[in-house]
Amino acid sequence: MSSSTHHTIGVVGAGTMGRGIVQLFVQAGHRICCFDAADGAAAKAIDFVTDMLQRQVAKGRLTGHDVERLRARMQASTQMSELADCDIVIEAIVEDLAVKQQLYRALEDVVAPTAILASNTSSLTVADIAAACSRPERVAGLHFFNPVPLMKVAEVIAAVRTSAATTETLRALVEGAGHRAVVTADQPGFLVNHAGRGLYTEGLRIVEEQVASPAEVDDILREAAGFRMGPFELLDLTGLDVSSKVMASIYEQFQHEPRFRPSSLVAPRVAAGLFGRKSGAGWYAYDGDRKLRDA
Ligand code: NAI
Questions:
Q1: Which of 94, 101, 119, 143 to mutate to test the pocket of ligand 1 (most atoms within 8 A of CB)?
Q2: For ligand 1, atom 1, which residue shows the shortest CA distance?
Q3: Residue 290 domain-assigned?
Q4: The model scores a pTM over 0.80
Q5: Which residues, by range, are in coiled-coil regions (predicted)?
Q6: Are residues 215 and 171 in the same domain?
Q7: Residue 146 Cα: closest atom of ligand 1
Q8: Residue nearest to atom 36 of ligand 1 (CA)
Q9: What is the pLDDT of residue 292?
Q10: Tens of pLDDT along 1-36?
Q11: How far apart are CA 273 and CA 119, in angstroms?
């Protein structure tokens, strides 16, 4: 399938990630059907995306006419049955295996047997999600990063039973939208969150062992090692509440391999609500998005 193929894409889960996925693919020329279990959430997501498109008019990147055209290609669905015409469904609902499995069972009753079902899961095993399906060969992971339109990479995760055709269609879909697609195996953390362990886990160990402060680690990695942000700045951006779950999940999935053991510095900070930017303080203190100083 060529990257210029236009699909009707179902986006299930209209939260932070679902909204970004809607925006990315409507701008890439696809039709979007957005569904969320919460009342009014899908419509709100389409309004949000339309707002984001309007901002591009102000910057001269789109015209008002473009926005109208794109708006007409996005539909908010109140019933899952409205996804029947979708040839690709991207799921971005809550990170809970049982809830996801239940959704996939219901989706298989709605979509065509050839439709692809892709999960934006950040830490679950894709094979576990696919195990709920009667056609696991059409199930894969499609892991975007927040904010989706700006983070120009997505992991296409091929689970053990994912067909080569499914992987290839998703790879072409991502690249057709101008993002880089990285095809990875269905292993803990896939590529990005596995590689990230080296950065976060060792960064945290350095602080735990009082070798240096978080700000010193960040400064050195930015200034001397060429990173755009240091690990503590990144943890504050993602939110330690979210990152701590990824740390725990990867440690668990690697059968408690010591090199993935979450730092003892993390749990007390999560309990204290020091999540990062979203809570106003983490490794640094914030005024909105502006970093003030070490917390
Ligand atoms: P969110 O909480 O912002 O949005 C989830 C949405 O799914 C909500 O609107 C909720 O009403 C809806 N939902 C829940 N259960 C549903 C169901 N059974 N059927 C239909 N809709 C349902 O979550 P967020 O942050 O967008 O995450 C979604 C997925 O993306 C998760 O699997 C998460 O691990 C993954 N992810 C999140 C990233 C992030 O930075 N937030 C980054 C990469 C992946």
A1: 94
A2: 15
A3: no
A4: yes
A5: none
A6: no
A7: 40
A8: 122
A9: 87
A10: 444 589 999 999 999 999 999 999 999 999 999 999
A11: 29
Contact 119, 126 (CB under 8 A): yes
Q: Are 118 and 103 in contact (CB under 8 A)?
A: no
Q: Tell me: do 158 and 241 sit in the same domain.
A: no
ipTM of the prediction? 0.99
120 in active site: no
| Contacts of 27 by beta carbon, 8 Å cutoff, 6+ apart | 53, 70, 149, 177
C-alpha span between 11 and 33 (Å, rounded): 6
List, for residues 227-284, the tens digit of each pLDDT value. Answer: 999 999 999 998 999 899 989 999 999 999 999 999 999 999 999 999 999 999 999 9
Last residue of a domain, one of 156, 185, 214: 185
CA distances from 204 to 190, 193, 201, 260, 291 (A): 21, 15, 5, 11, 20
